[in-house]
Write a structure and sequence with these properties.
The chain has helices spanning 4-61, 63-94, 100-127, 129-148. The chain is mainly alpha-helical and 151 residues long. It has 2 domains: 1-61; 62-151. The longest helix has 58 residues, at 4-61. The protein is elongated and about 100 Å long.
Length: 151
């Protein structure tokens, strides 16, 4: 019969070999995951850089594109600021500061916010006007067909 010390040594050796094999494949799996993640990250970075390049090329081509871009940033910011002032005035009104100035503030800042938001949507449509123009032309054709249709 084998010595117990020898059995313990063989058991330890088997556990060590098994642990080494598991560790090897675990490291390989982690490396594979990391390499795929790096590829995805590079792909995402490439897409972001391409979008930025496209934007800069478009902005560099005409003054109109620069103005539209600036207004697309300005009007939503103005809308957010004015609507936050309107909400602040409304909260003051709710908490008991009910005077004519507060009501006028709410109405004025709400109107400024709504008009600013509308202007931002118009400028978004102006950035690439072709789909909007096609839709409007189609709507005009439909309305003219309805008008000329059976009366």
């Amino acid at each position: 019969m084998m010595d117990t010390a020898l059995l313990n040594d063989l058991r330890s050796l088997a556990i060590g070999i098994l642990g080494g094999v598991i560790t090897f494949y675990l490291i390989k799996a982690i490396e594979r995951y990391a390499s795929r993640r790096i590829v995805r990250s590079r792909k995402r970075q490439l897409e972001q850089v391409q979008v930025e390049l496209k934007l800069l090329e478009k902005l560099g081509s005409t003054d109109r594109a620069v103005l539209v871009f600036g207004f697309k940033l300005l009007f939503p910011l103005l809308a957010i600021i004015s609507l936050s002032i309107a909400v602040s005035s409304f909260l003051a009104l709710v908490h008991g500061s009910a005077d004519a100035k507060t009501v006028i503030d709410i109405m004025v800042w709400s109107c400024v916010g709504i008009v600013s938001w509308w202007a931002s949507t118009v400028f978004k449509k102006l950035e690439d006007p072709q789909p909007t123009l096609d839709g409007l032309r189609q709507r005009i054709r439909e309305l003219q067909d309805e008008r000329e249709g059976p009366l």
